[in-house]
Design a protein that fits this description.
The chain is mainly alpha-helical. The chain is built from nine helices and no strands. It folds into two domains: 87 residues, Methane Monooxygenase Hydroxylase, Chain G, domain 1 (Up-down Bundle), CATH 1.20.58; 68 residues, no CATH class. It is elongated, with a radius of gyration of 18 Å.
Length: 171
């Protein structure tokens, strides 16, 4: 039984049932259904803190998924898993893949910005102020891209830009 079908949470169970029904109704191949199952299993494992299992499921989904749009969401989910493991550089590699596959995923840009901001904070703690500024500037650029499609979202990003004096990048 796929992991996503073992959820005890009512909302997760409902979503899983609806997703399974849609996969049966919509004209999809066995490979696409498998990719979707692995992707959902990865999200389920990730939400339970089972990061190694989540990564295994995401990588299987990446190998199976053929639709470029659907495939663009998998690296977006792999990124936070690496972030949770403290592997920020690896997380950025996957965040960068999402916009390459889908031109405007604001959540990927937001995650890229948050990771760059974190790297900037790390540089400050290491005494590298020049490097930290470069990371913060990069974070501001990504936050700008995250906020642009829907200015009402990512209020925290907008506030961070104002607090750090980078709101001019936002105009």
């Amino acid at each position: 039984m796929p992991r996503s079908q073992r959820n005890d949470n009512f909302i997760d169970k409902t979503f899983t049932i609806l997703a399974d029904i849609l996969l049966q109704i919509l004209p999809t191949t066995k490979r696409e259904r498998e990719a979707s199952t692995y992707h959902r299993d990865g999200m389920s494992a990730q939400s339970e803190g089972e990061y190694a299992e989540a990564l295994r499921s995401y990588y299987k989904a990446m190998r199976l998924e053929v639709d470029s749009y659907d495939r663009s969401y998998i690296p977006h989910n792999i990124g936070p898993t690496h972030t949770s493991n403290g592997k920020h550089a690896r997380a950025l590699e996957y965040y960068f893949q999402a916009p390459e596959r889908n031109s405007s995923p604001p959540q990927a840009f937001n995650n890229m910005a948050a990771t760059c901001h974190h790297r900037g904070e790390q540089a400050i703690h290491q005494g590298n102020l020049e490097i930290s500024e470069a990371w913060f500037d990069q974070a501001a650029e990504y936050w700008k891209q995250a906020v642009a499609p829907s200015p009402g979202n990512y209020i925290e990003a907008q506030n961070r830009l104002k607090i750090t004096g980078r709101s001019s990048l936002f105009n």
